[in-house]
Structure formats: C-alpha cells, structure tokens
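hi support,

uploading two proteins for the ticket. first:
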Amino acid sequence: MNKRVLVTGANGQLGKTINELFFINESNLEFTFVTKKELDITQKLELKLFFENNEFDFCINCAAYTNVEQAEKTPKAAYKVNGEGVKHLAQVCKETNTILIHVSTDYVFDGEKIEPYTIEDEPNPINEYGKSKLLGEQYIQKILEKFFIIRTSWLYSEKYGNNFYRTILEKAKKEKELFVTDEQTGCPTNTESLACFIIRIILSKSKNYGIKHFCDEKIMTWYGFAEQILNEHLYKDIKIVKAKNYRTFALRPKYSILTNLPK
C-alpha cells in the first residue's frame, strides 16, 4: 500500500526540492504539496478540517518563519508560525495518527562550543528565531510520540529561494568586491541532501523517533563558502574581503556544527 505524504510550506526551498526530486518516483509514495495559501498551519480549524478530509501517513513540515533579522524586530510573527503553528500541527498529527517530520535548526544552540553539537546537548538559543524554533520542538516532544525533529545547518538550494548561495551569485553579477564574515563556522547543507535524508527515513520505516541532526559534511566559514561558490562558477575577478566587524541585528551562533553521533 502506498504511503501518503503531506509536505507543508511547499513554496520554500526545501519543499520545492522534495517536489522536484520525489514527486515522480518508484517508491510507492504519494505526495500532497501545500503552500501557506493552501494550508496555513497557524489556523487550527483549517488544519483540522484538512486532515479530516485527507488521510496521511507522514507530514513533512517545511512551513516556517525563517527571516532571522525580522524575527528580532517582530518576534510575534516568528512565534506564531514556528511555535504555535507547529503546536497546532502536532495536535492534528496526534489526532490522525500521522507521523510528523519537522525541520528545525542549528540556531537552537548558542554557538559557544568548540566541538560539534550532539542531540544530547542542551539548547540555548541567542536570538528570537532560534527561540521560536525551540518552542516548536518542545511542543512536538510534549504532544507526540511518533515524530522526527531534524535539525540542520546553513540550508541552501542552488535553484530555489533566498539563501546565501544564490545571494552570493547575484552580488557577483553586480559587484567586484564582496564583504563576507569569517567569524561564523558551520556546514552548508544542500536541500537535495536533506530531502534525500528525509525520504530515507520514510522508506526505511524507521521507528527510531526523536531528534536527529543532519548536515553536509564540509566545515567552513561563510567566507570559505563564498569562495567555493565563486570558484564553482568561475568568478575569478571577484575579490572577497573578510568582514571582521560584520554585525547583524540578530545575534548568530559562531559555531554551528551538528553531529548525529553521541558524545
């Protein structure tokens, strides 16, 4: 029997990647992709009716408020989606016996470690975005038994969305000098890698529920990532300057390496 999979936030970079890679597949998975306009997770009644009128085995939640800077200025908007919206989704998944696969972030940590964060490490977010994502995680753990929370690091798509990879390429078309910080370290993670990891969980019929960490393996700074992007696209004449005093409105973790391995 085919497994029915709902993907929320289908207009985001991860939702679009899952659609591209797996909508036509030979794995007996039937996908339903919904955008925020089609299904708003902050609307509990709307969610309830949608799940009652459709049957799903899995829900991959890609719906999220991801504007880190704006979350600092208007945190209520972030908490509404990343906290309360996720709470509503968890409640409906429980009522309908749907396994929730929720995408979270390295930003639930403060970035003060000098070794990779494990699933056993205590979260300590330093900005409103991270706090709102942690709240969503906590709701899921309180409400559900069958769930996967997947924390990832520096997610980007080469094709979709607003992300560092695409921003660097756009700037390279217009500017000869790019200022990029080398004060933050992480593992840039391609949406294709994360999409494959999520689908493997479904196909493996895993019952090893709980929090998982997933990111691509190459460790680098934003400066190093920018260098890699420009080299890939043969932008030899672009100068990258290390922005030592790079500041943003929101505090950001300095070290964002995640590992699925125990301590």
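and the second one:
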Amino acid sequence: MFERVFSLKEHGTTIRRESLGGLVSFLALSYILFVQPVILSDSNMVEPMNAGGVFVATCLCSALACFLMGIWANLPVALAPAMGHNVFFALTVCGVAAVGGMGWTWREALAANFIGGAVFVLLAATGLQTTLIRAIPDSLKHAIAVGIGLLIAFVGLQMGGVVVANPAVYVQLGSLHSPVVLLTLLGVLVIGVLLTFNVRGAILYGVLITALVGLAASHLWGNAWGYRLVEWKSQVPNPVEGAKATFFGVFQGFGQLFTENPPMRWLTIIFIFLILDLFDTVGTLVGVAERGGLMRDGQIPRARQALISDGLATMAGTVAGTSTITSYVESAAGISAGARTGLASVVTGLLLLGSLFLYPVVEMVGGTVLVPAASLNPAAAAGAPVPCHPVVAPVLIIIGCYMLQMVRRIAWDDWTEALPAFLTIVVMQFALSISHGVAWGVISYVLLKVLRGRLRDVHPLLGVFALLFVVFLAAA
C-alpha cells in the first residue's frame, strides 16, 4: 500500500527513512504547540481565545493538513499555524487599541482568515496565484518578512520581561535581577547553543530545558519571590471543553465581520491574510523542494495539489479555531534526515494527533506568570502585575532571528526599493501593525517608481493595491 500511494522506490527511499524524516520534522516544528495557545489567548486581545481550544484546533488541523499534503501532493512538507500570522491575528486584528490593535473579536478575524483561505484555494486551482505573487516586488516581500520577524521578537522580549513599558521613553530594558528575565535569557542561550551544534529539534529541547530549570528554581526560591516561573499542575482544564468555545465560532464571525466594519477595512485584512499565506507557502515550498532535490525541470511536482492543500488547511483551521496554517520551512530538517515523499508528512501528522495527550505539559510550559511590576522595573513599584511567559518567550526571539535573515536580499543600493522596504519594516514596529507596515511600503514603492519615471517596474495590480491602501489609511 505504501508503495502504491507514495512511490517509495521511485524516490529512492524506505518506510524507515520516511518515518525518521517525519519525526525530525515534528521535533523541529513542535514548538508551535506551546506558542500558539499563548499568542491567541494573549491578554492584549479584545477577547482572548480559550488556550485549550486553540491547542486542540492546532493539533487536529495541522494533522489534517499534513495528511492532505502527504497523501494528495506526496510531498515531505509539514504544515502548522504560521508564526507571524498568529501575531498579526492576535495583536493587529484582535488587539486592543492600547497596543495598536483594530479591536476585532477573534470570531471576526477567523471569518476574514477563512475568506482569505478560500481565495487562496481559488487562486491555486486556477493558477492565478503566480500573477498575484509577481505583482508584489521582491524587496517588499523580504521587508514584510523582516518586519514580522522583528515584531515577533519584540513580542517575545515583552513576554519575557526583557523589555518593559516606560511612559517617558515608551520602552526600556527590564531588570536583569528579575528571575523572569534571567530565565528568558537562559532560554535564548540554550536554544542558541543547540542551534549552533545543529541539534535537530533544538527549539523543542530548548523549551523543555528552560521549563525544567524554571520548575526547579520555582521549587527552591518561589516562596521568596512571591511567584513561580513554572508551576507543575496536577489538574488542568480539559482542552476538549475549551474546544467547544472555539469550534465553529467562525460562522458567527461572518455576521460581525460585514456588519461592524466598513468594506475597506475587512477587504484590507482579508488581503493581508491572503498575501502573507501566499508568500509563506510558495517561498517555503520552493525552498524545501530545492533543498531536497525534488524540483523537476524547475517546477515543484504536484504544486497545485500542494497549494490547494495549504489553503484548505487554513479554512479548516479557522473553523476549528486557529490562525493561518501553512507549510513549514522546518520540513527541511526532515528532508535532511532522508524524507523524500508524503509518507514523512503523514508520520508528522500522526505525531501531531498524538500530541493531544500532552496538553498538561503545554499548560505548564505556557502558563502565565504574574510578575510584580517592581521586579521588572523598580520605578513602577505601584504598577499592576505584568503577565509574562518566560519559557515561550525565547522561542519568539529566536524565530525573529530566523526571519531577519531576509534583510540581506533587499536592494539597499536602490532608493526606490530601499526606502519602501525600510518604511515597511519600521512602521510595523513603531505602529505595532503589520497591515499599516504593508500599506506604507506599497504606497511609497509606487510613488517613488512613478516619480522616478520607472512606471514599468510597477505591476498594474500593485497600483490597484496602492490605491486601496490609501483609502484604508484615510478611513483608519
């Protein structure tokens, strides 16, 4: 059966090699099981989602996506909720005004994401996704990735107490005497060391080591601190009960999406969800296929099936209650271990399903630590306790480092490319808004090219997007 479905001999592989590749891919991406519930239940959201429900949706829909990719497209590419997309979902779209958010409910955001996924499937089925991707210049694509990476890192620094609020200068470093900050920095160091030694599953192992250190330190000194960095819980909420609160919420969100928001706003958010998914998916598929020697005459085999699988996974994820599901570049780790067919993706999917039983560990590792404000910033002694996640925070900081590598691909010696890229990156950071960063980048790119007399560099679709973004900013 395996030979008939996956053509193992044709690809020069075996069941054992594919199983090992699937396991390695799982170890490389499994950090998302800890991170996703934390981000989508963030206290800065207008209505935080149920962490248990997000965890169940992440496991189930990521597994479904891996099965689709493995059996239908026969590619060793694993899928799970995308980093960056989840931050956009939680802080930009669903965030409170104090953090630059638009104030949507998570149901509205899921509805917009569902529509973006449906459009993705339509584009993939008709082959039009290439036209849309070509409309966005490479400099802006790379700048968007860099900007999102920096934003993810900033969120991680906040979650770890390394950066705290300061009304006079906006932000400042947290106290290096704080146990939360020290544990966060230890986590970054541990993951960094593991990565330098090319340890497969470095991020997962780093999370577990950091959690164990935090658990031991809390046992020894937690009473003196007045809080625990990591707390072992003998009883945790049933994630299935949490899933009841998130499953099918997307359908309620459709009514809210169209009745409570002007058309320009929801059109823009759907567009952002769509292009982020397109960039991530196509870029990952090409990179992973090239790394594994899977390209055929410069083309990804069964690319259409792969893209449709990705879009369907996003739609399923929104129905269950999680943000955009997309292809993971960490699949390259599995390919390096020998994976060459979709059987590896099926193995990864089975492991994701089995992870449903690990929720007690996820709840312990991702638990919120309420840290006295004075512990992070002595000048804020009277402030409210600060919610921190010192075990998960290092992951976000490391992911930011991953994504920052794209900055070297921007044409910094051409001002018509460099300035729009720069504005994309910095506006994302200082406005805490991915959508505004993309808008400033696109508008400035078109303006500079037109004023420089290089209209031929501007794809007609990009001109349309620029006009739409002008309307979006004017209506904001």
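thanks. also noticed: Residues 414-475 form one domain.
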